[in-house]
Amino acid sequence: MTRVFNFSAGPAVLPEEVLQQARAELPDWRGSGMSVMEMSHRGKEFMAIAAKAEADVRALLDIPANYKVLFLQGGATAQFAMVPLNLRRGKKSADYINTGEWSKKAIAEAGKFGAVNVAASAAAGNFTTVPPQKEWRLDPDAAYVHYTPNETIGGVEFPWVPDTGAASLVADMSSTLLSRPLDVARFGLIYAGAQKNIGPAGLTLVIVRDDLIGGAAAGTPSMFDYKIHADNGSMYNTPPTYAWYVAGLVFEWLKQKGGLAAMAEINERKARRLYACIDSSGGFYRNPVDPECRSWMNVPFTLRDPALDDEFLKGAKAAGLVQLKGHRSVGGMRASIYNAMPEEGIAALIEHMREFQRKRG
Ligand SMILES: *Cc1c(COP(=O)(O)O)cnc(C)c1O
Question: Less Cβ around it within 10 Å: N or C end of the chain?
């Protein structure tokens, strides 16, 4: 078996130990005679798998008891609608912070359900930094404040958690959840599509404070109502059972690795090494993001001469480094370096970058 270093933004690399365990258990989960894929979601085997996964993610993030953890479908994109449908509660407006591509999508979707106040935007600086909180124009009567802690495409990450007082803070953490410790109590609601830093595609994690459940707008489809999912333990309908199981294996892996404080230390080191390689290239490689707001998870960079992009990518592929092509909207390169990207992958990428610069710089 040959594994590459996969820098995809999502679906993304999973820990090899997790894949090996899933493979070993694939046809017969722990003597049940069944694959997890074949199990009833209401049977005792899957109920145990589901409960263990929830307990482990609660332990990892130290989630307070007054929050529900929901295992849903529809991706972060469904949450762009579910958040306003459940949290607006007749309020005239909702505050959104615009820091890039994913913020814009969340804002556009929220606009279908009522007025949106873009309380701050990083557009003037071409989305290379985050607007300082003193510049935010929050509406005191807004239903909630929504932001994107890590912009997966722009590679811009908030190095701080906003303070929104009594207003509930809502965060799209699709590409950063579980990358470092988090004070969940600061948030009203956190959501994340699993396929970046949690597990396989098809699963969406929602962490929501109890008082924000139960206020869905009239006419909200059942599948878009947090209360329906919370009351049914995320089993109102058939959940994405296999993705839930693999996410559970990832949670176990994270616990074995020492939890999120240990992951943060590794992630910080991985990111620092890669940015140092870019910054010390004399402009051959370039990352435009404000150093304070550089993402630990998604590292976009350009080559001084874009005509060399294809050759760079070809050489990378030959060295076992794949999915480095930047997002179609920005071009260049992007290295996504989630929890499951080993430090050896960073070392191999840096080696390729230095070698390529020696040849073509
Ligand atoms: C990938 C991503 C999304 C979209 O997720 P889907 O699961 O494809 O709906 C939304 N927000 C952020 C920050 C993302 O990284």
Answer: N
At residue 173, the pLDDT reads 98
Domain at 16-256: CATH code = 3.40.640.10
What is the residue with the minimal CA distance to atom 4 of ligand 1?
Answer: 76
Name the residue at shortest CA distance from atom 7 of ligand 1: 75
Residue 151 Cα, ligand 1 centroid: separation in angstroms?
9
Q: How far is the CA of 116 from the centre of ligand 1 (A)?
A: 20
Q: What residue owns the CA closest to ligand 1's atom 12?
A: 174
Residues touching ligand 1 (Cβ under 6 Å) are 10, 75-77, 102, 148, 152, 172, 174-175, 193, 196
Domain 258-360, architecture per CATH? Alpha-Beta Complex (3.90)
Query: Residues near 298 by Cβ (< 8 Å), separated by ≥ 6?
Result: 9, 150, 151, 152, 153, 155, 175, 334, 335, 336, 337
The CA distance from 220 to 108, in Å, is 18
Supply φ then ψ for residue 96, to 5 degrees. -130, 140
pLDDT tens track for 14-62: 999 999 999 999 999 999 999 999 999 999 999 999 999 999 999 999 9
All CATH 3.90.1150.10 domain ranges of the chain, comma separated, are 258-360
Whole-prediction pTM: 0.98
What are the residue ranges of CATH 3.40.640.10 in the chain? Answer: 16-256
What is the structure's pLDDT at 115?
96
